[in-house]
Amino acid sequence: xxxxxxxxxxxxxxxxxxxxxxxxxxxxxxxxxxxxxxxxxxxxxxxxxxxxxxxxxxxxxxxxxxxxxxxxxxxxxxxxxxxxxxxxxxxxxxxxxxx
Amino acid sequence: xxxxxxxxxxxxxxxxxxxxxxxxxxxxxxxxxxxxxxxxxxxxxxxxxxxxxxxxxxxxxxxxxxxxxxxxxxxxxxxxxxxxxxxxxxxxxxxxxxx
Lengths: 99, 99
Hints:
Two copies of one chain form a homodimer.
Chain A: E1 2-9, H1 15-30, E2 35-43, E3 49-56, H2 59-66, H3 70-79, E4 88-97
Antiparallel strand pairs in A: 1-3, 1-4, 2-3
């Protein structure tokens, strides 16, 4: 299982609109191949910074199948207008669950 | 509930030692006031990059109580030697769980 973390800086004053856009775009992720979860987290130190946390079965489910799908275009059309810059995307895997 | 994400770059070849140090330091977090969970994740794109993900009841449980405790010193003594640089720490809160 792969966790995608997209760090997204939103425009000043666009937080509520951005959160609503993520909510509206949820079906794009829900029907994506291998997509197992979607959460949105917000930085305490930088309130304009969000982390879109998406769980994928495989890396390719995100980087190949989702990114080349119409649902990716729809997601970006919904949320893109509220982003201050393109998202910075990184993937990680679980190394250890201590407790 | 606050999620601390400490981004930690480890020295080349130090991954196994670093993971063992996190495992050894687990009790430091387990007995910390307000600490509710600890996981270690590893970047796919940058294998020397780890994310220590710690769940705290409040921000101050981490930034005040833990950082001023002997357990913080012990954690750093255990894991510090394998870090290539001081961790970069950020906190976030849940904005939305879509699914």
